[in-house]
């Protein structure tokens, strides 16, 4: 029988403390995830002082809106879009006209359109910074988790830290336990956060986490609450481990840094296995595959529930007139799976007016014809991509022409000067070929121009591919 020696109460955090910091709207599942993961966070992120814990929680509260959200929705009004992503505020430099156009879209469309514009191919600077090179990467790798990890490259970094397949399954950061794990590992990654917290420098901490000062005012409020709620917080340098009753000798004391990680908390009921090679629910996978064939894109075909699958299923049910309640989990999905699969079967065998077999997502004539206004509205990243394509193409042509002219003119001039200066010795000059080669090898400007032309041509080709991919997604109805 074990006599469990209590770890000091000051080393734990309680739901009451978290709610006092977050406010009345805190989600119970997010509160529970932090309480479960706090002992590990203390060890991994060195949250050993009141200031460190308070600053850490203040950042989480700011990024999650007081423990209410785990992902950027993008459902912003025009004024908010301009405030965050507008000219002078963000490299995307969204114009007022763009912001109004995006804000006028239905909520389900607004997020993908906005984030592909500001984080993805619609913003070449962020596309390169985040490695968001896919046509929908801006949306897939939008801000997620308790520290709002943003961009494919940062999801990959969190994957290396946590061991979770976040690149293949970015929706994992939208789940409480993985989100908290990623948050404290991000805080601990280079020691800068704790150093700034030790100085009680909320501006510096905010810049490290956010990259700027967005949300600084809210963060100050949460920090004040956190300091008050954690007034008695401290962590001892050692933790007493369980001792067996009747065992002679004292209980064992281990330094905090040498403790083994506690067993992970049980996963929420609808979290699928994390092995990316293992598909989740077989029935859901079948529906995802068939929805995609009908041009309702669920994102990654993996048999796991996520926002992509929810959006695709919602669109299909609306277009087919299925009066069913949209599920929010795999378990709820199984309650309507038979009706959905039955309707998919009808869609797959339905004879169309032109005699073809198979019903596909309906699109307007303007959309099917790639009307520029429709494409621009639903895929605004096409506008800067088209601009990049034209600039890169013409620059490549100009650089190539310049390289040819530079190479030819210098060669002709050099050869003419050589022959003019050596008329009397041309016939018996022993190093004629070598001398001519020396003239050719001293023409670096042409070579550099050709390399520049090749690089610009590559940029133009990638921009053209992005335009074609986005346009195709719009014309087929996959992009809403």
Automatic annotation (TrEMBL):
Q: Which domain of life is it from?
A: Bacteria
Do you know which SUPFAM superfamilies this protein is assigned to? Lysozyme-like
Any signal peptide, and if so, which residues? none
InterPro entries listed in its UniProt record:
Cell_Wall_Dynamics_Protein (IPR052354), Lysozyme-like_dom_sf (IPR023346)
Region annotation (Disordered) maps to 259-278
Q: Where are the transmembrane segments?
A: none
Q: PANTHER family, alphabetically? A: FAMILY PROTEIN, PUTATIVE-RELATED
This chain belongs to the protein called: Chitinase
Q: Which organism is it from?
A: Bradyrhizobium japonicum
Question: Lineage in the entry?
Answer: Bacteria, Pseudomonadati, Pseudomonadota, Alphaproteobacteria, Hyphomicrobiales
């Amino acid at each position: 029988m074990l006599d469990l020696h209590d770890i000091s109460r000051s080393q734990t955090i309680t739901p009451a403390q978290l709610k006092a910091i977050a406010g009345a709207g805190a989600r119970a599942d997010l509160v529970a995830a932090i309480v479960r993961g706090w002992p590990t966070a203390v060890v991994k992120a060195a949250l050993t002082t009141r200031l460190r814990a308070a600053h850490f929680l203040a950042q989480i509260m700011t990024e999650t809106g007081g423990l209410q959200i785990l992902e950027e929705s993008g459902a912003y009004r025009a004024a908010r879009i301009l405030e965050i992503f507008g000219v002078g505020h963000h490299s995307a430099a969204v114009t007022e006209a763009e912001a109004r156009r995006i804000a006028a879209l239905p909520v389900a469309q607004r997020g993908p359109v906005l984030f592909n514009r500001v984080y993805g191919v619609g913003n070449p600077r962020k596309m390169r910074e985040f490695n968001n090179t896919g046509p929908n990467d801006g949306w897939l790798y939008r801000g997620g988790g308790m520290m709002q990890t943003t961009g494919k490259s940062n999801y990959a970094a969190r994957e290396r830290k946590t061991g979770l397949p976040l690149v293949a399954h970015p929706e994992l950061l939208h789940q409480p336990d993985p989100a908290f794990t990623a948050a404290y590992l991000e805080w601990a990654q280079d020691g800068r956060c704790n150093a700034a917290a030790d100085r009680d420098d909320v501006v510096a901490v905010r810049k490290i986490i956010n990259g700027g000062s967005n949300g600084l005012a809210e963060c100050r409020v949460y920090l004040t609450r956190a300091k008050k709620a954690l007034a008695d917080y401290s962590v001892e340098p050692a933790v007493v481990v369980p001792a067996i009753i009747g065992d002679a000798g004292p209980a064992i004391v281990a330094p905090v840094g040498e403790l083994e990680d506690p067993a992970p908390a049980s996963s929420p009921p609808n979290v699928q296995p994390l092995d990316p090679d293992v598909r989740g629910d077989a029935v859901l996978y079948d529906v995802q595959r068939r929805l995609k064939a009908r041009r309702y894109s669920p994102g990654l075909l993996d048999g796991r529930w996520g926002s992509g699958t929810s959006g695709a299923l919602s669109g299909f049910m609306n277009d087919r007139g299925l009066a069913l309640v949209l599920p929010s989990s795999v378990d709820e999905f199984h309650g309507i799976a038979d009706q959905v699969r039955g309707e998919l079967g009808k869609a797959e065998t339905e004879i169309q007016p032109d005699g073809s077999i198979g019903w596909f997502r309906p699109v307007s004539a303007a959309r099917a014809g790639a009307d520029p206004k429709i494409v621009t509205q639903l895929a605004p990243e096409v506008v800067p991509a088209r601009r990049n394509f034209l600039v890169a193409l013409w620059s490549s042509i100009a650089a190539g022409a310049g390289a040819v002219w530079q190479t030819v003119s210098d060669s002709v001039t050099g050869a003419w000067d050589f022959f003019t200066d050596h008329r009397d010795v041309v016939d018996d000059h022993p190093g004629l070929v070598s001398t001519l080669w020396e003239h050719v090898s001293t023409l670096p400007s042409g070579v550099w121009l050709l390399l520049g032309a090749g690089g610009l041509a590559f940029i133009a080709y990638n921009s053209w591919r992005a335009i074609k991919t986005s346009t195709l997604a719009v014309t087929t109805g996959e992009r809403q």
